[in-house]
Amino acid sequence: MSDQPMARPVPKPTAWSQPYWDAAREERLVIQHCNQCATRIMNPKQYCPRCLSDDLGWSESDGRGTVYSFSIQKRSPASPFVGKGPYVVAIVRLDSGVQMLSNIVGERAFDVHCGDAVKVAFEPIPGTDITLPVFELVG
Amino acid sequence: MKTTAAIVGTGEVPTGNYPNRTEAEAAVTACRQAILDAGLSPRDIEAVMPVGVVMGSRHFNTDLIFSRLCEELGMLRSVKLNAQVMAGGASGSATLKVACALVASGAVRNVLVVHSDKFGSTTMQQGIDLFATLGISEEWEAPYGHNANTAVALITQRYMHETGTTEEELAAVAVSMRQWGALNPNAMFRKPITVEDVMRGDHVCTPLRPKTMSLWADGASAYIVARAEDAPHITPTPVYVRGMASLVTHYSVSQESNLAFLAFPEVAKEAYAQAGLAPRDIHVAEFYDAYSVMPLLAMDAMNLCEGERAGSFIAAGHTLPGGKLPMTTTGGAIAQGHTGAGVGVSLVVESARQLMDKAGDRQVKDAVNAAESGSGGTWMDSHISILSREAR
User: Fold this and answer.
1) pLDDT, mean of residues A36-59
2) pTM value > 0.80
3) What is the value of ipTM here, to two decimals?
4) CA B195, CA B201: separation in Å to the nearest integer?
């Protein structure tokens, strides 16, 4: 077991996920799909998980969805997150049907419940060229 | 489904923090116990199936893969296959499935399954950091501060939302585990606790409080699977494997389509059908925990609570020693200790011990049939097995 402190985990885009991170940097949420069988794909993949086609594309999402579940990390997170204060991890079900892991942010984040409506927001990771899609409660 | 395999022997060393006990020493001891318990000689074993090591040394894991146990325990030139099977927390159920298939196929007689790992010297932060990477997608989950605790917290929150289960009921699972742990000489935590004790602990991540979670420990356990037709000639107390159902549902927990129940409802139905048994036939439930929500959803899926919610059934004390349906009689990871992939192996061992009438102070009287569950990774799969004193 290494004694090195764990570094802040930062996504390392792959050839097939680069368009997702490029869009996020422009504050757009895009969802991968298969041009052959129309399957919506999340998390982004090399091949379509339904028909194994490599003919994949991207469509713009309006970033709206609902909270499928959530947890407020109050203490004892992994070392890169120590001292950041409580934060909300959630699974969001986008209106287009795909699910993704993210954070709920904003003033009312700690009032979150299962089923709450959310919309996408964007948070750059300081010192990197990565922007993370996150979500805020709406309504 | 005709029964083709049976467990004929088990072994286990105490779980806890044992800085002076090596992983190899613990593995050899557990294997020796299992062989002696079955009344076999080492040369009767034809396959050795070590489970993967999570926190112990890589050297030890390689020794397991490279047949060290065959040399240590006199199984050279009788063992035909020494190969690792690793499915994280599901390794008990997964090894049982593979071992049963091996003997049923005729490829080998008598498979020895063993797990040994060493967590006790790991610091809390090292463990938290490790479980913020294992089973967590580096690109899609880790950047959000997600980890194994939040993964099960997401399952727990959704389970509570869909069923109305309360935090006090989650706490009652830990209370049940600790009462069984008090009767288990191999358990790390042997002092009973109350719901109030659990609720006094502040949330680590909602809705999880510390005593509904588990602590890492050193441990080792082993069991032997034989052909059903050989089993009664090996031991007077064979434990037949009547049903084994399982399904993989995700890698990233965010991609789980039934977060509250995973695939436990489907696999429970299939396991009952294979076994030719019904909920009323199950006398003891050895359900995988690591966290308190997991036995709850297995109890619901197996329909073992007489129409009640599992949370209220457990809070009413029905799973405690002397209760209607004893559950996880080792005390599980919560009381016995979390040995990594070994928790599930120890539950297979305990299922067999109960049905062999060898469970000591924990013995469930007249137990004929037991159910066992498992789930690995960030609860990537759902396994249920049904074991019995009687072959089908």
Assistant:
1) 98
2) yes
3) 0.97
4) 10
